[in-house]
Amino acid sequence: MRVSVVQMNPGADKAANIAQATRLIDGAVEADRPDVVSLPEMWTCLGGDRAAKQAAAEVLPAQGSNRLGGPAYEFLRRVARERGIHIHGGSMGEQEADGTRLFNTTVVFDPGGAEVARYRKIHLFDITTPDGQGYRESASYGGGAEVVTFEAGGVRVGCAICYDLRFPELFLALRRAGAVLILLPSAFTVPTGRDHWEVLIRARAIETQCWMAAPATWGRHRDGAGQDRFTYGRSLVCDPWGQVVATVSDGVGWNTARIDLALLDRVRRDMPVLEHRRDDVFGPKIPRLA
Question: What does the alpha-carbon distance between residue 234 and residue 195 come to, in Å, rounded to a whole number?
Answer without folding.
Answer: 12
